[in-house]
Amino acid sequence: MTDPDGSGLNEGAAAQPVLAVVGRPNVGKSTLVNRILGRREAVVEDVPGVTRDRVTYDAQWRGRRFTVVDTGGWDPDAVGIQKAVAAQAEVAVSAADAVLFVVDANVGATDSDEAVVRVLRKARKPVVLVANKVDDERGEADAAMLWSLGLGEPHPVSALHGRGSGDLLDVILDALPETPAERFDEQAGPRRVALVGRPNVGKSSLLNRLLGEDRVVVDSVAGTTRDPVDSLVEVGGELWRFVDTAGLRRRVAHASGAEYYSSLRTQGAIDAAEVAVVLLDASEPISEQDQRVIGMAVDAGRALVIAFNKWDLVDEDRRPQLAKEIERELSRVQWAPRLNLSALSGRAVDKLAPALHTALEGWETRVPTGKLNSWIGELVAQTPPPVRSGKQPKILFATQAGTRPPRFVLFTSGFLEAGYRRFVERRLREDFGFAGSPIEVSVKVREKNR
């Protein structure tokens, strides 16, 4: 669904609220999800039970972002695999901030719908009742009959044709908790730091070390932390707001139960932070999960510090091996400050504040337009873009479109190969710094006058 305001997503939005879409099989939940998203992502077939697992999507309306969880058909009296599907829907409701309950207006309220209503009442979550498949005014009379469910006003829509979907989205925003966009350049108070990493790397131990108290439950069993815990922490003589997040075991799509929603909230914590400290266990090989967490922070455009914890367990044999792993596995983030520390002993914990400042400084660096274009002119003179289809593309103008993270746009006469864009990024880092920050370099090809 296109945002009618034309509003873009605000940088640094707070953690997104979660909307669970539930209803019995074949009432059009996935079709409605696609209508909300404004794009065809949820699988839709004209048979019941296509959706079995909880599937998560990002949506926006009127400049606000929220997470939509599409669930399988919910029949509380189901057996076999459908019982498992119903359990997934119940998990979605328990973790959501609001629920979109979809009913087929043509069929009316069934016994299964009544059973779902009883579960929803126990959950004590805001519920938006949707009367789907109302394709014209005649169907609105059928929709009105759903007042009998006792969930308030039924909102008539046609997910297939889009009828009433804009009004429904307005109601959804009213039901979800307020999440005003947080502009970092207007933000007062402590800088926000997301402490992230796979389970059992010592995130809670590090936070407790910084706090000087057992603020967070710590256990040798991986996955003790489920939800983010905000803590004001004094590091390097100043106050920071740390968020200790649940460890990410596996891809969100493959997680289950409470862990699934812990992963969602971990991503939300990264999105809400300005800088992410990714904690790795120095005594173990760098894993795919470690790289995935780093990738989440980079893809979110956050400043980045990589901290190798448990350094007291690293022996002489491990150190050269770790150096090779860093060169091989972390090549895409060589620009991130790295620390070797021990939350247990307190080793090098005092170096965290300078690393945070370095990363944030790179994240907020702006190159004046005049200086940038002089620099790009010299760069192109020394190393021009490769010829493509017999033509030499020219870089006509360059500008820095924004900071946090730094974003550059190259206005060109033709397409620039990805390899040359990476070359420009590498040289930007060499000449202007940007330590601790991802950089975005995009190309805008000038349209020829016809």
List the defining traits of the structure above.
single chain; 450 residues; alpha/beta; Rossmann fold; GMP Synthetase, Chain A, domain 3; 6-stranded mixed sheet; 15 strands; nucleotide-binding; KH_dom-like_a/b
Task: Describe the 3D structure.
The protein has 450 residues and is α/β, with parallel strands linked by helices. The protein folds into 3 domains: 18-175, 3-Layer(aba) Sandwich (Rossmann fold), CATH 3.40.50.300; 192-361, Rossmann fold, CATH 3.40.50; 369-445, GMP Synthetase, Chain A, domain 3 (2-Layer Sandwich), CATH 3.30.300.20. It has helices at 29-37, 81-95, 111-123, 138-144, 165-175, 203-211, 257-272, 288-299, 318-329, 352-363, 369-382, 418-432, and strands spanning 18-22, 55-61, 64-70, 98-104, 127-132, 154-156, 191-196, 229-235, 238-244, 275-281, 303-309, 338-340, 395-402, 407-412, 440-445. Strands 2-3-1-4-5-6 form a 6-stranded mixed β-sheet, sandwiched between helices. β11 (303-309), α9 and β12 form a beta-alpha-beta unit. Pfam families: KH_dom-like, MMR_HSR1. GTPase that plays an essential role in the late steps of ribosome biogenesis. GTP 1 binds at residues 23-30, 70-74, 132-135.
